[in-house]
Amino acid sequence: MKKSISIFWRRKKIHYAIPLGKCMKCGKVIYPPMRRCPYCGSEDIKVIRSKGIGTLLNYTISYFRKEGDEASLPRIVGLVRLDEGAIIPAEIVDVDPEEVKEGMRVEAVLRRLSSDDPYGLIYYGLKFSPALNK
User: Fold this and answer.
1) Average of pLDDT values for 119-126?
2) pTM of the predicted protein model
């Protein structure tokens, strides 16, 4: 299934950065940013950008396969607590499944998300990789 280039481009802030909401009343950081703080109910939310560095809290290794996606198996998916405080789901890449461990430091990296076909457009976005010296 081909994706719309214009829709993907309009969503580039989501694909190429990690927007967070910071409540100016209670100080909590929210992902994704919302109009109202789920902790205190304040509508005084400021959108900030994450530095993309955090700690892997938990993960699972998936061997589920869809046609044409065999090369990306196994896939490691986890929960990352960003240094700003928010917890986000993320794919973990550039590491062997045997080397992944809870508590490891990770950082956001730009990686291939999908493509239209072998000769079509390639779509990129953020995934997480083991952090180097962070």
Assistant:
1) 80
2) 0.82
